[in-house]
Design a protein that fits this description.
The chain has about 400 residues and is α+β, with helices and mostly antiparallel strands. The protein has 3 domains: about 90 residues, Orthogonal Bundle (Helix Hairpins), CATH 1.10.287; about 100 residues, Urease metallochaperone UreE, N-terminal domain (HSP40/DNAj peptide-binding domain), CATH 2.60.260; about 130 residues, Sandwich (HSP40/DNAj peptide-binding domain). It is built from 9 helices and 16 strands. A 4-stranded mixed sheet has the order 11-12-16-15. Strands 1-6-5 form a 3-stranded mixed sheet. The protein has a 3-stranded mixed sheet with strand order 2-10-9. A hairpin with a 2-residue loop joins strand 5 and strand 6. Helix 2 packs antiparallel against helix 3, helix 2 packs across helix 5 and helix 3 crosses helix 4. The longest helix has 18 residues. The protein is elongated.
Length: about 400
């Protein structure tokens, strides 16, 4: 059997690193002991692993091409006693290394995290939009070192432990030979560089905490819990990396008159029994009255006509005066529920007049009307058009 690593992997002597790696992955999938436990196949797998170890290492490959022993042995065949990289085996099966990350040092500069703040607004501000100045406390770029993390006049140096690779190799023996795993370098935390003189302002992080004021434009139609996204206004990343986004979550305060139901506004109007019986007109303030300027020409009030004979619990709808839609030109309605108030205390004259009214309406001893628990749609329509 050949001891030439090029022949073992089936590649040309001019093959590049990617071609060699693809050939190794293909053979490793076929020959790995977990796939094929045959002893002869295991020996073949060791040879393939040893061949890849030589050809994937530029120094060992150069030494082999010059006729030397890349493992520094005095004798013995090429494929015996050779180690292999556990990471490369994982590459063969999963298309990446065992840690799921790319090899080499990890970047010191990374994108910052998103930030979330809550903003209290009034119902009218949420409905019609507003602009607020918001104070936020986030990480910002360190102006002393401009994000480098190094003190003035200094700069990062190559880590002497991992020589700038960001990873160190750990070797252990197994029945397959030497298994090598790559772990992040503890000396430089995987960056490949060490800052000998960190910036005193940011302690080498490249960013500091600061309170700043930003202007937030709240669009019309937002609701309680809506989040407004402000791009690149979040936390600046480590090493002066680009900032994340800032999300402003809207918290809508309770209104003294209206409650919101989708795009509709609902309110209750209490009228005396006599007004409900005879009919009346009530001046109802609209939501615009909360934010309109004194000289504004916007309609702030609407006349609500209470029809004679209105019953308690009746809804009257004012079209198109509710909340604007956040995503269209539509606008909801104002729904007014009429609550009829029965007088609790009467003087003698008032009681006398009511008794006269009861006689005129033949209601001195009413039996009351017992309503069925469930009424059909046609039954409810019929009752609605009965003369009162």
């Amino acid at each position: 059997m050949s001891t030439d690593p090029y022949e073992i992997l089936g590649v040309d002597r001019e093959a590049d690193v990617d071609t060699i790696k693809k050939a190794y992955r293909r053979l490793a999938r076929q020959l790995h002991p977990d796939v094929n436990p045959d002893p002869a196949t295991q020996e073949r797998f060791k040879e393939v692993s040893a061949a890849y170890e030589v050809l994937s290492d530029p120094e060992k490959r150069r030494m082999y091409d010059l006729g030397g022993d890349p493992f520094g042995r005095g004798g013995g065949g090429f494929g015996q006693g050779a180690g292999f990289s556990f990471t490369d085996i994982m590459d063969a099966f999963f298309g990446g290394n065992a840690q799921g990350q790319g090899r080499g040092p990890r970047p010191r500069s990374r994108r910052g995290q998103d930030a979330l703040v809550r903003l209290d607004v009034e119902l009218a501000e949420a409905a019609f939009g507003t602009t607020r100045d918001l104070k936020v406390d986030t990480a910002v770029l360190c102006t002393t070192c401009s994000g480098s993390g190094a003190a003035a006049g200094s700069r990062p140096i190559i880590c002497e432990t991992c020589h700038g690779h960001g990873e160190v190799q750990h070797v252990q023996r197994s029945f397959l030979g030497e298994i090598r795993t790559l772990r992040p370098c503890a000396a430089c935390r995987g960056f490949g560089e060490i800052i000998p003189e960190p910036c005193r302002e940011c302690a080498g992080d490249g960013r500091v905490r600061s309170r700043r004021t930003i202007t937030v434009k709240i669009p019309a139609g937002v609701d309680n819990g809506t989040r407004v996204q402000l791009g690149n206004q979040g936390e600046v990343g480590p090493g002066g990396g680009p900032p994340g986004d800032l999300y402003v979550e809207i918290v809508v305060a309770e209104h003294k008159i209206y409650t919101r139901e989708g795009l509709n506004l609902r309110c209750h109007v209490v009228v005396p029994m006599t007004a409900a019986a005879l009919g009346t007109t009530i001046r109802l303030p609209l939501l615009e009255a909360d934010i309109a300027e004194p000289e504004s020409e916007v309609e702030l009030w609407v006349d609500l006509d209470i029809r004679p004979g209105t019953q308690s619990g009746t809804d009257q709808v004012i079209r198109g005066r509710g909340v604007p839609s956040l995503r269209s030109q539509a606008r909801g309605d104002v729904v007014v529920t009429i609550d009829v108030e029965t007088p609790g205390r009467l003087d003698e004259r008032q009681e006398e007049l009511l008794r006269e009214l009861a006689v005129l309406r033949n209601e001195e001893t009413p039996d009351g009307k017992i309503q069925p628990a469930h009424t059909s749609v046609f039954g409810r329509l019929k009752d609605a058009f009965k003369p009162r």
